[in-house]
Design goal:
globular, 27-stranded mixed beta sheet, seven-stranded parallel beta sheet
Length: 574
């Protein structure tokens, strides 16, 4: 523990008591001495100075704060000891802030259970940088710590002897609006809604009229202040667990440093354009072994921060996106799954633009063992001014727009040791290429990857027009796709309709591309007597030999077609 001079003077006060003892006169010799009363008063003053002085350092070991609402002794007026725990996480956060301001690190230890709370932690003006951690206590049982934005509603009324039930509704959130109208983006009304209902853990689909109400759906009638629920013809509502999302954000962290969250599930956060957990203006933040699931819009949003780590965590089954981040310096995602997201967007045929796993303005980003599977959107989308990015051992599969989208960035970006496969195009968009797609992305290295089975093209470089980085009007020049390297990749099409490489207005890419020592393979046999032309360069269909001769690429690469027993990969199990 490092101490400054002020700390040393403060810690030396008890040692200086020896001077007071030395100044006492010996009553036996007749010399004067301090009376016991005056001496005690001096000790009290010195002790008070020690207690009340603000420390400029933190203790090496954090002080635990226990949260256990099931304990008979639990109360938010307790100190949070194991014997006398607090009842709510909110009370634990307040206690942690008090400890932090005294320079004492706080470890909030949370017993398993469902916590229906909405939490906010703003550490602006904090007196020290002592660490705060929120941790689920380990358990051998299946129970977990879940912070949820839903409530259990029991008092439903059956409607006219049907399978439809009603309940008073007071939120009246209405439509959130469309912030992208100036860009001619269509955001259907159903995507602008923020309500969710779960019956026995199963999400009910929201509809916008009573006429659309069928089994498995619900409808909010704001004029009547009622919610209509049609769970199932065979469901006994008296025995069902019905959870209704009522909170629009369940964890907000701002202006923080040295905060960590471990082992917690965040779910059922309601509201459009919101997130179950949001982190902003923070530094040295860690998320570990957490889940962000079944939230209406986003699972986790991180913005305007630095030194952020997310590891061994899942953001899945969220309405629009799992994880998104913007304006981050040093972002590390390791062993993260962001999958099965954008179900609400799909209800309104909204698959791109802001849907999916998007990252903006990341300067220093590492995606290690990142998995994006079966999103109804892009799998991983790096959009605008992403620099110094490494994507290593990623698995991007079966996403509905594209596997990996690199857009409007100066780089450098390295994609290596990854699998991009079986991605498809759910909506018509002439820009998209479901495998690896780039638009105005420069300085990209693609090496040791397996790319196969993606609809239309495995790799697409389509610079419809040059791009500028938004917010940087004084930048010199514009961004185009250029200075790419392809090496040691296996790239395969698996149907006659698929291409290996497609370009559009991408001459800078073609002129500067270094591509060699790859294996290109056409696994699908074309029609009889039809030439194998898996390269589409602008409007020209090229064979592999023409790709080599016309553009001078892949001189030492291997090409296999259906007649030469192509390499057929087997993707790893999900």
């Amino acid at each position: 523990m490092q101490l400054n001079n002020g700390d040393r003077r403060m810690l030396n006060l008890p040692l200086n008591l020896s001077l007071i003892f030395a100044s006492r006169r010996n009553p036996v010799s007749g010399q004067k001495s301090l009376t016991g009363k005056v001496f005690s008063l001096l000790l009290l003053v010195i002790f008070s100075l020690l207690i009340c002085s603000r420390p400029a350092f933190a203790l090496d070991q954090p002080m635990p704060i226990y949260i256990n609402p099931e304990s008979a002794e639990a109360a938010d007026t307790n100190l949070g000891t194991k014997a006398f725990p607090l009842k709510t996480i909110a009370a634990g956060l307040k206690q942690a802030v008090r400890q932090r301001n005294k320079g004492v690190a706080a470890q909030i230890l949370i017993y398993p259970g469902v916590y229906r709370e909405s939490l906010s932690l703003d550490l602006k003006g904090s007196l020290t940088d002592a660490a705060i951690s929120l941790e689920a206590l380990p358990t051998t049982e299946s129970a977990a710590v879940m912070i949820t934005g839903s409530e259990v509603w029991d008092d439903w009324s059956q409607s006219k002897n049907t399978a439809i039930y009603t309940h008073p509704w007071r939120s009246d959130w209405g439509l959130a609006g469309n912030p992208w109208q100036e860009y001619e983006i269509d955001l259907a009304p159903i995507v602008q809604r923020g309500e969710m209902i779960f019956v026995n853990g199963q999400l009910m689909q929201q509809v916008l009229s009573l006429a659309e109400l069928t089994a498995g759906r619900f409808y909010i009638s704001e004029p009547e202040n009622l919610v209509y629920l049609y769970p199932s013809d065979r469901l006994d509502l008296e025995q069902a667990n019905i959870e209704v999302a009522t909170q629009t954000g369940i964890f907000r962290l701002t202006n923080a440093s040295n905060v960590s969250i471990k082992g917690i599930t965040f779910k059922h956060a309601a509201g459009a354009f919101s997130a179950a957990a949001s982190v902003s203006n923070s530094t040295n933040f860690l998320i570990e072994n957490c889940q962000f699931v079944w939230n209406n819009w986003a699972g986790l949003i991180i913005s305007n921060s630095q030194n952020i780590t997310v590891q061994n965590s899942q953001a899945e089954h969220n309405g629009l996106k799992g994880i998104t981040a913007n304006h981050i310096t040093n972002l590390n995602l390791t062993d993260v799954s962001s999958s099965y997201n954008n179900w609400r967007g799909a209800w309104g045929e909204f698959y791109d633009w802001d849907a999916g796993e998007k990252y903006f303005y990341i300067h220093g980003g590492r995606f290690e063992n990142y998995r994006a599977i079966a999103n109804l959107s892009a799998g991983l989308w790096l959009d605008t001014d992403n620099q110094d990015i490494v994507i290593d051992h990623a698995f991007l599969a079966s996403n509905a727009v594209t596997g990996l989208f690199l857009e409007a960035g100066p780089g450098p970006i390295t994609v290596k040791n990854s699998i991009i496969c079986n991605n498809y195009q759910v909506a018509d968009n002439y820009l998209q290429t479901p495998g690896l797609f780039a638009w105005s992305a420069a300085n990209v290295t693609v090496e040791n990857n397996l790319i196969f089975g993606n609809e239309f093209a495995q790799v697409g470089i389509r610079d419809l027009y040059p791009r500028q980085v938004e917010g940087k009007p004084n930048q010199t020049g514009t961004l185009v796709s250029q200075d790419w390297q392809f090496r040691n990749n296996v790239i395969i099409n698996t149907s006659p309709d698929q291409k290996l490489l497609v370009t559009l207005k991408a001459k800078p890419f073609l002129d500067s591309l270094q591509s060699d020592n790859n294996m290109w393979s056409v696994a699908a046999k074309p029609a009889l007597d039809q030439a194998v032309t898996p390269f589409q360069i602008e409007q020209s269909q090229l064979t592999f030999q023409q790709w080599q001769s016309d553009w001078g690429k892949d001189q030492n690469s291997i090409f296999l077609d259906a007649q030469t027993q192509p390499f057929l990969p087997t993707p790893p199990a999900d």
